[in-house]
Amino acid sequence: MAIDIEHWNSNILFTDRADFDVDAYVARAPRPEEFNLREKLEQWRDVGIVVFESAVPESAINAFLSDIDYLKSHKDRFDLEIEVRGGRFRLADVAPDALSDTGVKYNCLENISLAARELSLNQFVCAFLRHVFQDDPVVIQSLTFWRGSEQSPHLDYPWVRTQTKLPHLAASWIPLEDIHPDSGPLAYYPGSHKHNVIPPFDWGAGSVVQESDSVKTPDDFTDYLREQIDKLNLRKEVFLPKRGDVLIWHGNVLHEGTRVNDRARTRRSYVTHYTSLGAYPNAFQMPDAFAKQAFTAANGGYVFDHPWINDARELPSWRKATEEPMI
Fold first, then answer.
1. Which segments of 177-274 does DSSP mark as H helices, in order?
2. Distance CA 327, CA 321 (A)
3. Can you give the pTM of this predicted structure?
4. Residue 259: which residues within 8 A CB-CB, separation 6 or more?
5. Most buried one in 17, 82, 125, 233, CB count within 10 A?
């Protein structure tokens, strides 16, 4: 399947269409929500960002951090690849003191942690994304990191591309601690997500994603985005949330990690990328997944078990699953 501008334009989100009418949609919305749906949809349409304050219970964050502590003290039991200061290592091969380094980054902990799945399937996130996708949200991947990334302005879609409909992409960002201005907080560019405000980048031969034979490089993409920022005079907004808040960003909103001014400060964060159920590929779920109950479902969203994951479900959050309900 060619992922080109025709694919992009024919699969944009319901909320990105020129004829999307917030008032008309809210008037016929199928169910009431525990938030102001009109306000949130207007923010999504105009800014590309929605924030729910105090949306994540302390118990959920604590359970997640407990799972990570267990990983660190039982690292030989898990076939897990992690990053330490940009290098990739098997968890079992990493020295214990390195796991306390602020440069540690865990990828896709939702594959082995029920607590991670609970964070990803937060009730406010799933409820809102069901309106955006006009379908149930499904987790594609997660990222867990302790320090600010200082990543240059970027878009997710050239690399987060498991979904069969490329524009069916959104992400949530949960701070695991109060975020300080000197820790390198997340920043975003309001309105940059709007359809064709920043036209999709051509990596070569019309592809809007990076391929193995692409003639353009990630540096070329960064240069293109910086040119668009200057051309469009886009304004940068810095996000300084409290622990337990949650931000949802549009899959095409421009965002970055700002400069870390105080290297002693952490920016502990949990990020999840989502697509719609209809755009989630069969290869990333077990055969007959629904019949076999090979997934975790909550609040209208899903995390599917992957065929290649040998998950013993050993982490503490699985053992507590019968004691505490999903959030």
1. 218-232
2. 12
3. 0.95
4. 148, 150, 184
5. 125
5-319: CATH, from 2.60.220.30, 2.30.30.240, 2.40.50.1020, 2.60.120.620:
2.60.120.620
Question: If DSSP codes are grouped into helix, strand and coil, which group holds residue 122?
Answer: coil
For residue 325, give the nearest of 33, 55, 59, 52 by alpha carbon: 59
Cα–Cα distance, 177 to 133 (Å, whole number): 29
Count of C-beta atoms within a 10 Å radius of residue 39: 12
Per-residue pLDDT of the chain (327 residues; tens, 9 = 90+): 579 999 999 999 999 999 999 999 999 997 789 999 999 999 999 999 999 999 999 999 999 999 999 999 998 888 888 888 888 988 888 888 888 777 889 999 999 999 999 999 999 999 999 999 999 999 999 999 999 999 999 999 998 999 999 999 999 999 999 999 999 999 999 999 999 999 999 999 999 999 989 999 999 999 999 999 999 999 999 999 999 999 999 999 999 999 999 999 999 999 999 999 999 999 999 999 999 999 999 999 999 999 988 767 899 999 876 565 544
